[in-house]
Amino acid sequence: MTWNILLTCPPMIMTLNHCQERFAAEDLNVFVPDFQQQMSEAALCEIIADFDGVIAGDDPFTAKVLKTGRAGRLRVLAKWGIGVDAIDLEAARDLGIFTSNTPNVFGDEVADVALGYTLMLARQLHKMDAAVRQGEWLKIQGTSLRGKVAGVIGVGSIGQAIVRRLRALGMEVLGYDVHPINPDFCQESQLQSVSLDRLFQDSDCILLACNLTPQNHHLLNAAAFAQMKDGVWIVNVARGGLVDESALIPAIERGKVGAAALDVFETEPLPADHPLTQFDQVICGSHNSSNTREAVLRVNQLAIDHVVRDLKRSAAGEVPG
C-alpha cells in the first residue's frame, strides 16, 4: 500500500535526497508544497485532506486543519523535532489522529548555539567582525563570564546541556522548571534549583530552553522584566511566544535589558522593519539552533520511523491512546 505524505519541515526538505531511498522502501509518496518557514492554516486546509500523514515543521495544525484532514485521508501527524505547541493535541486525540514528536534529540546542538550567543553578548565578537570588514579596528571592552549568574528556564535535555556549558565557563547557574529537576543532575553540575522569581531577580543572563505552553505564553513580560537586574541579558533558543516582544522593546530602550540574543520570534520570519532589528545590542537568529547536518539526518529517520509506525497502527484499526 502506498501512503501520501505531506512534508512541511524545512530542515528535512533541505536534505530530501538522503531520505528518498527510505521513502521508496516504505511506500511513501511524499509531497513538498511551496512555502517559507511554515504553512498557514488556510494553505493547509486547502490540501490536507489528500494526505494520509504529515511530517510537520512548525505549521499551525489547528482544530480546523485537523478536522479538514480527518474528513479526508489524514490519520497520522508526525512532528519533526521537539515542540508541539503549534498542534492542537486535544483535537487530534478527539479526531483519532495519531501524533508523535522526536524529543531529546537536539540537546547538544541547541546548547552550542545558546553558548555561542552568550559569548557573543559578553565579548561582542559580531560587532568587531563587522567593523574590521569595514576597515575599522574596533576595541570593545567585554564582560568576563566567570562568576556571573546565569538563569536557565527549562532544565530538560536542552537545558541540562546548556547548564553544563555555562558551568564550564565558570558561571554560577540557577535553574527553574515546572517539573522537579533531577537532584543527581543538580549535584553533578552544581545547579541551584530555584523559584522563577529568584531566577529573575538574581540572574545576570537568562536563557530560555523550555517548551511553549498556554501557561507560559509571554513568560517574559513587563512584570517579569521589572523583577530583573538592570542590564540583564536575554537568550532565547526555545520559542518566540515565551517573550512578550511589546514589553521587551521598551525594556531594551530604557536599559533594563542590556542585550538580547533571539533565535526565535513571535512572528517568523521576522519582518525586516521589526523594531528589534534596530537595536545593535540585539542579535537576531533565524530559528536555526537545532540545524546541524548530523542532527537533521538523525531526526529525519526518527520522523519517518514514527509516521510509518502510526500509519500501520491506523491501518490495523488501532486508535490513539
Q: Which percent band covers the strand fraction?
A: 15-25%
Stretches with pLDDT under 50, minimum 5 residues: none
Mean pLDDT: 97
CA distance, first residue to last residue: 24 Å
CATH architectural type of the largest domain:
3-Layer(aba) Sandwich
Tally of distinct domains: 2
CATH class of the largest domain: Alpha Beta
Spatial strand order of the main sheet? 8-7-6-9-10-11-12
Kindly describe this structure:
The protein has 2 domains: 3-105 and 293-315, NAD(P)-binding Rossmann-like Domain (Rossmann fold, 3-Layer(aba) Sandwich); 107-284, Rossmann fold (3-Layer(aba) Sandwich). Helices cover 38% and strands 16% of the residues. The chain has 13 helices and 12 strands. Helix 11 (222-227) links the parallel strand 9 and strand 10 (232-236). The longest helix is centred in the last third of the chain and has 23 residues, at 293-315.
Name a few traits of the molecule.
five-stranded parallel sheet; 12 strands; single chain; seven-stranded parallel sheet; 2 domains; Rossmann fold; alpha/beta; 38% helix; 321 residues
Topology:
Elements: E1 3-7, H1 10-14, H2 20-25, E2 28-31, H3 41-47, E3 53-56, H4 63-70, E4 76-79, H5 89-95, E5 98-100, H6 107-123, H7 125-133, E6 149-153, H8 157-168, E7 172-176, H9 183-189, E8 192-193, H10 196-202, E9 205-208, H11 222-227, E10 232-236, H12 245-253, E11 257-262, E12 282-284, H13 293-315
Parallel strand pairs: 1-2, 1-3, 3-4, 4-5, 6-7, 6-9, 7-8, 9-10, 10-11, 11-12
